[in-house]
Specification:
The protein has helices spanning about 15-25, 35-45, 65-70, 90-100, 110-145, 150-180, 185-210, and strands spanning about 5-10, 30-35, 50-55, 80-85, 105. The protein has about 220 residues and is α/β, with parallel strands linked by helices. This is Response regulator.
């Protein structure tokens, strides 16, 4: 059974958190609330998250500060952050969001369908990453253990092929998404596509390293 992904919702207003939960409940993932930047950072110490929805305007530590802390931590720096804001101070304010490490910046009121669709992309990518990491780890253990029987060799080759096929499917989805986003010529689209590309490139390199003859696996 595949474990559900966790989505972190950060907003100081309970009604906003309730609205986000209503919008994202259809994704059937685990939604975790945080009512402040400090509370969000505490949650990130112990749990892994697929994506963070972060309100910009909060008392105390605001969204920009919170994002800066998240990006400074080794454990959390690669988690996608989607900023949500009820204020709009123009391009400079939006640029500050991207500079803080956001992959998207959405103004309230937002289209619930659009928000859910964007979050689902990162959830899907996270789930694929988890599956690929688990299977790659299993394969690496087999190879490093020197299990060389014909049946095991065939099993390893089959697993590699399955991993490659799964990654190819995600790459195809990401390519289609990038083309769709490129049509909007939007800064958020560029940031989202770039993040996806970096993630997939890293996964493809890791998988290629497992191929026989790559020399990356200890004998």
């Amino acid at each position: 059974m595949v474990q559900k992904a966790k989505i972190l919702l950060v907003d100081d207003r309970p009604e906003n958190l309730l609205a986000l939960e209503a919008i994202l409940s259809a994704l059937d993932q685990t939604l975790v609330r945080a009512s402040s930047g400090e509370e969000a950072l505490k949650a990130l110490l112990t749990d892994d998250f697929a994506v963070i929805l972060l309100d910009v305007q909060m008392p105390g530590m605001d969204g920009f500060e919170t994002a800066a802390h998240i990006k400074r931590r080794e454990r959390t720096r690669d988690i996608p952050i989607i900023f949500l804001t009820a204020i709009n101070h123009g391009p400079h304010h939006t640029f500050r969001g991207y500079a803080a490490g956001a992959v998207d910046y959405i103004s309230k009121p937002f289209d619930p369908w659009v928000l859910r669709a964007k979050v689902s992309v990162f959830v899907e990518l996270y789930m694929k990453n988890c599956q690929l990491r688990e299977q790659a780890s299993l394969l690496r253990l087999q190879l490093e253990g020197g299990r060389t029987s014909a049946d095991e060799a065939r099993e390893s080759a089959g697993l590699l092929a399955e991993l490659s096929a799964r990654l190819a499917a995600v790459e195809e989805q990401a390519e289609a998404l990038s083309k769709q986003l490129d049509e909007t010529a939007d800064a958020a689209a560029v940031a989202t596509a770039a993040h996806l590309e970096r993630k997939l490139t890293g996964l493809r390199r890791a998988l290629d390293a497992l191929e026989p003859g790559s020399g990356s696996v200890a004998g």
